Amino acid sequence: MKFQPPTSAEVHEYAASIGFELDGEAFVDYYETRGWRPNGCRVQMKSWKAAVRTWKRHAKKSMPKPKAPRLCECGCGKECNFTYGSEHYFSSKHRDKVKENQ
User: Fold this and answer.
1) Residues 47-60: b if buried by 16+ CB within 10 A, e if exposed
2) Which helix (H) or strand (E) holds 91?
3) By Cβ atoms counted within 10 A, which residue in 20, 33, 81, 94 is the most buried?
4) pLDDT, tens digit, for every residue of 39-84?
5) The pTM is what?
6) Taking a C-beta distance cutoff of 8 angstroms, is the pair 56, 50 a contact?
7) How many CB atoms lie within 10 A of CB 94?
8) DSSP assignment of 32-48, as one string?
9) DSSP-derived secondary structure for 16-82
10) Neighbour tally for 34: CB within 10 Å
11) DSSP 3-state assignment of 15?
């Protein structure tokens, strides 16, 4: 069976059916520029659906993990709002409390 490249709509619909938000146009453009050959392969792609599932797996690995909120150093238990370099800026009330505790 000869490989039939998908349309961007087919890619988008398939990705949505497996719970993956994917820009179908970007996927199609990516592989069209490579002649529908996966990276480093000399043979043409056999299953674009398998490629979509691979993109989904790779997207999960590359997603940044949410960071725990940084709590205020004065001990009030509030989440900190601004960080600049290694210095931490609070309202004047909090800044005074931090200075008192040092």
Assistant:
1) ebeebbeebeeeee
2) none
3) 94
4) 878 889 999 999 999 999 988 877 666 666 666 666 666 666 555 4
5) 0.60
6) no
7) 19
8) HTTTT--TT-SSPPS-H
9) HHTT----HHHHHHHHHTTTT--TT-SSPPS-HHHHHHHHHHHHHHHSPPPPPPPBPTTSS-PBP-E
10) 14
11) helix
Burial 69-85 (b: 16+ CB within 10 A, else e): eeebebeeeeeeeeeee
- Residue 39 pLDDT: 80
Q: Is 101 exposed, middle or buried (0-12, 13-18, 19+ CB in 10 A)?
A: exposed
| Rounded alpha-carbon distances, angstroms, from residue 58 to 4, 10, 12, 52, 53 | 24, 20, 17, 10, 9
The answer to whether 18 and 52 are in contact (CB under 8 A) is: yes
